[in-house]
Amino acid sequence: MPEKKHIILDTDIGGDIDDHWALGMLLNIPEAEIELVLTSSGDTRYRTKVAAKFLQDVGRADVRLGIGIARLDQHLQETFSADVKQYLLDDYPGVVVEDGIAEMIRIIESKPEIMLIGIGPMTNLAALCLRRPDLMKKCRLTIMAGSIAKNYKDRPGIVSEYNIAADIPASKVVFSADWKEFTITPLDHCGNMTIDGELYQQLFHSHQAIPKVILDCYKKWLIFHQSSEHYETESSILYDTVAIHLAFTDKYVIFDDMNLVVDDVGFLRKESWGKSIRVALTWSNIGQYKAELVEILTKTRNIF
Asked: Transmembrane ranges (predicted)?
């Protein structure tokens, strides 16, 4: 039996639907010992309610939740606000911790090593770095963030990736910290990750709780965006699932080590003085990854 990994997931669930897919995937990986799901970006209490309702609906209210740093200055879409309007955090059968940063620190202190997975803006992760820089060497960090700058000033319409651009100062802190290991899947790598065809139909017709609840949320997300035409045929882009994958295995991915920094407009730039970061460059077999993702979501067994 492979050794368990102690996991803290930092997520901005409640905006794009890919966070639901990523959390559902994580729940179904037997090697994952989920210590905390921490919410980030905008109204983090709202996001904690979305996470709590999802976890309760799939029968995993044993997962501990932490409320991250609120950024009410960020006026973000709350895709599931109607869905959780009547939901109270006091109704969550599990534990909800008000000070999610303090809880993250407590958990890291108590474990020999932690796998941090970041699939949202880096406000919480930067707070960890600034409050307890001594804990970085206990943390293997895997995030979905960034795009590698390639003459972007000469390419009109090119914008920086959201998870970095939403809090550039925090991103700079995270990318300059001394992590035990730091892996990223940038947009250049995960921006084509969709499920369609027969694989999507396996999910669509599954009777398992996790895919059923994910697809129910996906339909609500599509309706919110006034489009449900793809509901029966394909997923949206599932960026965040790739970060979950890379926290457990290198399969199907080609990496390169790059010295990267975050610039003032939110792009990742190669600089000799930047920290060395393991970057997922491309897929060696994206089809096999998609098949394995569907297998993870539709049944619980030892995948890796």
From this structure: none
